[in-house]
């Protein structure tokens, strides 16, 4: 098992994991079929987000011969953490978050308030709800901030 910086030839797999997770976990919350099944595609995710050098340079993949998950970290923030649904519950998310905290000094994350699974995952890894909320851009849904207990934000 290796966690390494993402490379440009990883982009299609990273985007595939992102798109699949978004459809599974966010479509039930946002109920936007136009976005989830038309706008959100692997190629568009690469072209409009993951393919940007400033994003790719902060993205790390879990690679054991197959990329099974990834994490994006900017300064102390976990921006994205996704594991391919076929490989969830196998310790990959745990390995990625441990890497973020121990090797990259990550200390906080914003999660959709209605994404109970993600919030529970972060709580199991020592993150606590801070009481801070903000709207997810362009929506009426809230993001909640979770931070490590000793983090001063």
Describe the structure.
The protein is an alpha+beta fold. It has 2 domains: 2-106, Gcn5-related N-acetyltransferase (GNAT) (Aminopeptidase, 3-Layer(aba) Sandwich), CATH 3.40.630; 107-153, no CATH class. It is 39% helix and 29% strand. It is built from 7 helices and 7 strands. The protein has helices spanning 11-25, 27-30, 33-39, 42-50, 53-56, 92-103, 116-124; strands at residues 2-5, 59-63, 67-74, 77-83, 108-112, 127-135, 142-148. It has a 7-stranded mixed sheet with strand order 1-2-3-4-5-7-6, with helices on both faces. Strand 3 and strand 4 form a beta hairpin. The chain is globular. The protein starts with a strand and ends in a 5-residue tail after the last strand. The model has no long low-confidence stretch (mean pLDDT 95).
